[in-house]
């Protein structure tokens, strides 16, 4: 079994895979000061909910934007589990080429997102990750990460608004009924949801113009389900994009955590030639369930 761990600034997603099959996934708050023992306790409890255990983990792949937790997860895999460990960073040979000024600055989550979007959804493709930060990244048809944009995420914007404006109280963030809010709470929801969606649409429009084509746009991240319905440019929502990317990176780097799992060449053969931006990827035994198409 492969355990893929996507460590974000706010939340951590753990996903258990048998080959390309997702067994289960869990989402917990990121604890920046957690030790390897604490991480092991959390992972063990979550796996136990499905009758699994850390003893069954043959491989661990970690993508973390929190530097202190890279070492802690790596120590967990090597010392407590005794499994093959891969910590994702820019220097790995994943098949996705980082065609930017400073490849070492590209985060593990963006590498995973880009690889998964390219391999599973086709390219050219634009990836929108709606997390603590909102990132919009471009992948060319031949698998080059071309760069992107970083903006404050909806959660960061909400927290800054409540903390800085004395008269604004905390509200539950969700899709407003209309843009023209009739009370303060709905006006905040309108500004947050429609404002973030408009920001994404503006960035996608500019990136599409610079790329010179009508690229497919795939969204992922913790806030994606809230933002996607308000966006006019996002074509598809794939909540598993990052952990699927981590799985693909593990396989590309020679990982063999699951006997009988698909090889890299098998998966490439299944997805070869799908560079039409608006053609959905055909299903195969080695491919995950399709993502949600956004109705227009």
Describe this structure in words.
With 296 residues, the protein is α/β, with parallel strands linked by helices. The protein has two domains: 2-87, Nucleotidyltransferase, domain 5; 97-251 and 259-293, ATPase, nucleotide binding domain (Nucleotidyltransferase, domain 5), CATH 3.30.420.40. The chain is built from eight helices and twelve strands. The strands form two sheets. The chain has a seven-stranded mixed β-sheet, with helices on both faces. It has a five-stranded mixed β-sheet with strand order 3-2-1-4-5, sandwiched between helices. Helix 2 (67-81) links the parallel strand 4 (59-64) and strand 5. Helix 3 crosses helix 7 (241-252). The model is unreliable at 257-289 (pLDDT under 50).
CATH-wise, what's the superfamily of the largest domain? ATPase, nucleotide binding domain
Number of strands: 12
Low-confidence stretches: 257-289
Q: How many domains in all?
A: 2
User: What structural category arises from helix and sheet content?
Assistant: alpha/beta
Give, in order, the helices and strands: EEEHEHEEHEEEHHEHEHHE
| Number of helical segments with 4 or more residues | 8
Q: How much of the residues is beta strand, in percent?
A: 15-25%
Residue-averaged pLDDT, rounded? 87
Rg, alpha carbons = 19 Å
Helix content: 25-40%
Q: Identify the overall geometry.
A: globular
Widest sheet: strand order?
A: 6-9-8-7-10-11-12
- Main sheet characteristics: 7 strands, mixed
**How far from one another are the termini?**
38 Å
CATH class of the largest domain: Alpha Beta
Quaternary form:
single chain
Instruction: Assign the CATH topology of the largest domain.
Output: Nucleotidyltransferase, domain 5
């Amino acid at each position: 079994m492969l355990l893929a761990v996507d460590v974000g600034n706010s939340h951590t997603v753990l996903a258990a895979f048998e080959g390309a099959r997702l067994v289960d996934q869990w989402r917990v708050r990121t604890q920046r000061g957690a030790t390897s023992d604490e991480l092991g306790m959390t992972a063990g409890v979550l796996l136990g909910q499905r009758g699994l255990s850390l003893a069954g983990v043959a491989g661990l792949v970690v993508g973390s934007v929190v530097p202190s937790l890279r070492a802690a997860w790596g120590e967990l895999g090597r010392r407590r589990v005794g499994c093959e460990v891969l910590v994702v960073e820019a220097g790995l040979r994943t098949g996705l080429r980082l065609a930017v000024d400073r490849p070492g600055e590209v985060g593990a989550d963006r590498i995973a997102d880009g690889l998964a979007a390219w391999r599973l959804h086709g390219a050219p493709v634009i990836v929108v990750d709606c997390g603590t930060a909102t990132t919009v990244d471009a992948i060319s048809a031949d698998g080059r990460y071309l760069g992107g944009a970083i903006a404050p995420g909806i959660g960061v914007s909400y927290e800054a608004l409540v903390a800085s404006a004395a008269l604004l109280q905390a509200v539950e963030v969700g899709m407003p009924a209309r843009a023209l809010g009739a009370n303060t709470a709905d006006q905040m929801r309108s500004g947050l949801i429609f404002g973030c969606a408009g920001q994404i649409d503006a960035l996608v429009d500019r990136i599409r113009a610079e790329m010179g084509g009508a690229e497919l746009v795939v969204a992922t991240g913790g806030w994606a389900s809230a933002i996607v319905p308000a966006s006019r440019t996002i074509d598809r929502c794939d909540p598993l994009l990052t952990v699927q990317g981590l799985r693909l990176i593990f396989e590309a780097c020679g990982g063999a955590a699951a006997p009988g799992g698909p090889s890299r060449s098998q998966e490439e053969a299944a997805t070869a030639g799908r560079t039409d931006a608006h053609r959905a990827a055909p299903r195969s035994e080695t491919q995950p369930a399709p993502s949600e198409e956004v109705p227009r």
